[in-house]
Amino acid sequence: MRQILFALAVGICASSIACATSFAEETVPSVVKVQSTGAGRYFTDTAGKTLYTYTLDKSPGKSACEGQCAINWPPLEAPGDASSIGKWSVVTRSDGTKQWAYKGKPLYRYARDTGPWAMLGDGQANSWYVAFEPIATPGEITIHESLLGRVLADASGMTLYVNSGDSNGISKCNDKCLNDWQPLWSPALATSGGDWSVVVRDDARKQWAYKGQPLYTYRSELKPGSTVADGAGGVWKAVVVEPTPPPPSWITIQMSDVGPVLADADGRTLYTPQTEGPWNFEKMRKETCDDACLATHWRPVLLSANEPLPTGNWSAITRDDGSKQLTYKGFGVYTFVHDRKPGDVLRGEHFGSGLKTQSAGFRAILQSSMMRH
């Protein structure tokens, strides 16, 4: 097979590749910093605090985050005389102060973020998400979250893979190989530009390639974001453009009645306090299980003395005795003393509620919660 590369004319966009202003050339407000990754770019304030958007901000030019919400999620302030800059605009809050917005969405910090580029608020309450601008891709390709990190996917969110046996833009996947793998077809008039190129297969059909590697989907993949075929045959790899920061090396995955959960090296399920809902952690402490009760039934997960501080959603807090307790998304991590075997979950989640069907003050950490949004 042969590879065909078409030059992308300056100032002209191919029908299947979106025009995009260079990140380096775009002006941002002076209170904003930018970090670029293989998947796109993120924004922080000048102190490095990650910026977020809120799904309940549905009215243009208006923030729905007031009162206690604004304490937990401080708005990104704009000076009184600030004016719009490209994709950046200014909204007026109910108290008359100004706030920066990106593409019309007001921007916030998260009070529990532990330091520069921490993203502990991503996905909180299914309403808060990191302000993120993905790289420009052909129309047939998207950026999608997965347990491996952000990956290239087709338009329906199915993960894209490359084969290490392909070289020089030539696909070696033919005949029986095509029973399991579907080439990502490109439009007949598609052109190449940047990391994206078009290869022509033996049957004359055109296929998208990324950095010279032809792209495929796995025919047996069941849902968007799945990377079940990563490592298949020792030659297939999901195209990860931004890896997920790894958890501590001793964390294991255990199957449970609520799905795969994170556990310690002995298989004990890991929990964090539940802060929302009718039976949250504080309500449990006041009504059904005080601090002495908690000390009897729950064990903080401690880092060893020489263990490096974890990154990403993981961090640590210093306890009164000087020990370091593992945290996940800003909340302390615990095990439940009454879990008897790997995968036990429900007794821990119901503990303290007085009911058999209602979660109480702790929630198991699901493997799915590790997905980048």
Task: Walk me through the structure.
With 373 residues, this protein is mainly beta. The chain folds into 3 domains: 23-134, no CATH class; 138-243, no CATH class; 252-370, no CATH class. It contains 5 helices and 29 strands. It has helices at 68-72, 177-180, 281-287, 291-297, 346-350; strands at residues 2-4, 32-36, 40-45, 52-54, 77-78, 88-92, 98-102, 105-106, 128-130, 132-134, 141-146, 149-154, 161-163, 181-183, 196-200, 206-210, 213-214, 216-218, 236-238, 240-243, 252-254, 261-263, 271-273, 298-300, 314-318, 324-328, 331-332, 334-336, 362-364. The strands form 11 sheets. Strands 1-15-16-17 form a 4-stranded antiparallel beta sheet, with no helix packed on it. The radius of gyration is 24 Å and the shape is globular. The two termini are 37 Å apart.
